Every structure is written in structure tokens, then in C-alpha cells.
Amino acid sequence: MMVSLNLECMERSGCKPMHQVTSEGITKTYDKGKSFAVDKVTFEVDKGELFGLIGPDGAGKTSLFRILTTLLLPDEGKAAVNGYDVVTDYKKIRNVVGYMPGRFSLYPDLTVEENLNFFASVFGTTAQENYHLIKDMYSQIEPFKKRKAGNLSGGMKQKLALSCALVHRPNTLFLDEPTTGIDAVSRAELWEMLTKLKAEGITILVSTPYMDEANLCDRIALIQRGRILSIDTPSSVTRKYKGKLYAAKSQSMYRLLEEIRKYDQTQDCYAFGDSLHFTLKDDSGNGIESLSDFLTASTHFSFDLREIEPTIEDCFIGLLRE
Amino acid sequence: MGAVVISTNQLTKKFGDFAAVDSVSFDVYQGEIFGFVGANGAGKTTVIRMLCGLLLPSSGTASIAGFDIYSQTEEIKKSIGYMSQKFSLYEDLTVKENIRFFAGIYGLSDKEIREKGDGLVFELGLQESAKKKVKELPLGWKQRLSFSIAIIHSPQVVFLDEPTSGVDPIVRRQFWELIYAASERGITVFVTTHYMDEAEYCGRVSIMVDGKIRALDTPSNLKTRFSGNTMGDVFRSLARGAARVGD
């Protein structure tokens, strides 16, 4: 057991645990045990790591974050943050973690400034003490510091929420879907911010349904229906993709999709950005040439077929199909 | 291209001195999948609310399905469908009850409701779940059901406001296949999304920044013009300088 080993190690020699977060067989059920929100989830996050939990709504990301931030008790398993057990040492954990829930959870009737000062005082600190951590974000909302938080725009609410989660300088930061419903430019800004916080030595766990954000993490866990499908660095996840992946393009994408699906050796074919991605039942033969012949015989438009490197999203789709 | 189904000319909406939508002009054609993207706060929702007859413009003109957005808002509401992730179905009603309810509101006859309802349940493979409450369905099924209900009255245009937020990548694609099928049937699809790969699935994409349409073209033309490999690159290069922050 990783957890107890770390604790023993700390007690004996006073050394720091190498893992900042550990989860060992964590399980959480709802509806009297009928539905598994989190199902035997095991992983570790290293100190200073930027770790992504990638999966759609209902995958169990929020339940897992709530367990790790001591807001929800697991049914089974053990988990620790900063070497503290999530069940027995919950008070200690609350002092060292920052948590930004997916839903806006600040006080809407307090002003921007009041919210920040409130969270600082709860942790026995002041907004000034760790101002360098939040300066980049907070300076953007400071002109509105007398405005009630409930009246801020979505983007500003998020900047305030992250400022409040950082005000006590946590060593571990949990961000639950910080980029959901946020436009592509603001998403890019948030990720730049996370990179800076990582450079400050803060361990970050971030969940997202956007697969393209996976590449910005040191390591990722792909999660679906409470289970981890794969856990590795983004490049290793894509390297482990089984079989070959091909892309197809033509002037009439919807017709091409229908045609490729008609081909009897096609395993899977789906739209992917400006092209189609597909896999074949057997990669060993000259499948792509045969498909090309098939398409030439049955269609009257030009097309382009080629083998490509899979993205994280292709890997996720592949794992879901298994 | 088909007939013009949506046409706006210098459409503007001001709230006080603030021009949420600033002189926007564009046409959308029948059966087109028209992507409507922009940063939070760019004015997308305000445009959609005006086109749906829910909000009067400050100036400019627009027509949808041949109806004027100032004077014929009731006719417009009968000619369009609308779906968003936030408002979709009644969770405590069953699949069948939701179909009956919305089809009834759209004025379909009992016979049409029965026929179209059965067809819809069959197409979505929901036969076994027809009597289940909507809240018991997985999110992806809810979204597909919600879309099918939004077009049950065969509207000329369907507005989809971030329809695929949060669903898994397979479900997201299944949803887009419903969109393609609707477009093949001649329904014009007006869709907003934050997934830039989905912008690639649209026939044409309009990119809104600070209340104005900064670019409108096919994805491939936009990528050429703004030297981007993906629609994400195009969007970021246009929206990065946006003055407005947030929703």
C-alpha cells in the first residue's frame, strides 16, 4: 500500500512523500450501491505535477475530486493528499489544498473584494500575503472589486474563483472543469495560468471534457463511467494506440462517411475535424488500397486516404469501443 | 446554394450605450449547417434571441423563414426549433410525455404526434426507454432526444446552442450525424459551439468578436485566409484581441 508506506516513511525519517496525491481502489456508489460514480480508482500524482483527468460528464471526475478534497466520503479504498489520509486527516488536508468546483460557489452577495478577503481570513492569511500568485488574474478583475460577485460575467467569476482557491497558497490545487463552456481564447489563457502555478511548485489536478487540453498536462488519466481507461503521459497514451488509424477527406464528407461505413473491412469511421478517421478490421493486408478501389467503384468524387498518428481523442474513442 | 432562410442587415442591439450586437449582416441558406462561434460575451446569444423573436433589435432588419423579426415573431416561433444544453426536456416526464408535450405546443395533431413520436422513438432506438423518465436516461440520449423533439414540427431552421457540451467523444459524433441528417432533409441548422473541431463540420462558419462578425466563410477558406491549420488557430487569431471579457 503506497499510502501507508509513505506515512511510515514520513514518521520514521521525516522525509517527504514522493507522491502528492494517492488514490488506492477508491470507490463511491450512489442509489444505495446501485450506480458506481467512482469504481476502484487507483493512481498517484507526483509533487509538482500537472495531472489531467479527462472524461465526459458523468465519468466520475467530480466525485473523485470531492473525495480527494474531503468533501465526500469514499465507500471503499484509501486516498491521501500531502501524506494525509482523506478520512482521518481531513482537517489537515483542507489547509493545504485549493479547490475550484465546476459550479460557481463563491458568495454572490459579497463583493469581489469581500469574497477574496473572506477566503483569506478563513485560512488565517491575507490577500496581500500571497498576492504574487493571484496577481495576473486578480489585477484583471480588480477594477470591479466593489461589484457583487453574483453580477460578474462568467469569465470574471472564474478568475475570482481561482483567486479565492489560491489565496492561502495551497500546495495542491484541484480544478473541476475550469474550461467547460469557456471560449477557446479564455481556455488558452487559463492553461497559461496553470503552467505558471506549476512553476511555483503547486501540484495541480485538473479535470476537463476537452480532449485537446490533454496535451498540456504532464500525465493524464482517461476516465469513463467511474473507471480509469488509461493513465500515462499524453505521448505514451497515443503511442499505445492499438492498430493503425487512417484519415479520409473529400468534397462531400457526409457521403464519404456513409461510403466508408459500407465497406465490409471498416471497423469504425467517425468525423474528426476537417476529415474522417477510420480503422480497419485487419491492418496486415493492403486494406487501404482495397478501400480506395471500393470507393472509386462506388462514388464519383475524388478523395484522399492516408495513415495518420492518433490524437488523445482517437485513443479515448478506441478505448470506449473496446 | 438554396433559398435564403435567414437574412440580417446591419442588425444591432444596444443596451444603453453598449452595442451588444453591432451592425451584423449575413445570410444563411436552406439546408445549410451554419456555425456561429465567438468568445464569451461576443454577442452570439443576443443575435440568437433576436432571430428567435425573443428580443427586439435596436436597429437594422432581419427576416427568418420569410418572417420579419419586428412584426411577425409569432410566425417565427412556429417556423423554428431551439435546443440548448441548459434548457431541453422535462426531467420528470417520460420520453413519450416529453414528445407529446412539445409536439402539442407546436400544434401537431394527435395523429401526427402519435406517428412522429413513434418514428422518433424508433429512429433513436429508444423503444425500451419510451416509458422511462427522462432523468433516468444517459446525457447523450437526452441530447439526441432533445434535438429530435426540437425538429418534430419540421421547422425551417433549428437553433442549437452548445448542444454537445460535456458529452463523450462518441456521443458527440453521433449527435453531429443527426445534424447532418436534418440538413440533408432541408432543415437549416444554426449551431454554436466551443469545440473548434465541430466548427470544421459546418458548411460555413461565422466568427463574432466584440459584437461584430469578423469573418464568415467555409472552414477551408477561413484556414487559408488566416493561415491556420485548424479552426482553433483561426478562432484564436481573430478573438485574441477581443476587448470584452466573460459572458
Folded structure, characterized:
Chain A has helices at about 1-15, 60-70, 90-95, 110-120, 130-140, 155-165, 185-200, 235-240, 255-260, 285-300, 310-320; strands at about 20-30, 35-45, 50-55, 75-80, 85, 95-100, 170-175, 205-210, 220-225, 225-230, 245-250, 265-270, 275-280, 305-310. Chain A is elongated, with a radius of gyration of 23 Å. Chain A has a six-stranded mixed beta sheet with strand order 6-7-8-3-9-10, with helices on both faces. Chain A has a four-stranded antiparallel beta sheet with strand order 2-1-4-5, sandwiched between helices. Chain A has a four-stranded antiparallel beta sheet with strand order 12-13-11-14, with helices on one face. Chain A is built from eleven helices and 14 strands. Chain A folds into two domains: about 1-240, Rossmann fold; about 245-320, Alpha-Beta Plaits (2-Layer Sandwich), CATH 3.30.70. Helices cover about 35% and strands about 30% of the residues of chain A. With about 250 residues, chain B is α/β, with parallel strands linked by helices. Chain B is built from nine helices and ten strands. Chain B has helices at about 45-50, 75-80, 95-105, 110-125, 140-150, 170-185, 195-200, 220-225, 230-240; strands at about 5-15, 20-30, 35-40, 60-65, 65-70, 80-85, 155-160, 190, 205-210, 210-215. Chain B has a six-stranded mixed beta sheet, sandwiched between helices. A four-stranded antiparallel beta sheet of chain B has the order 2-1-4-5, covered by helices on one side. Chain B is globular. In chain B, about 45% of the residues are buried.
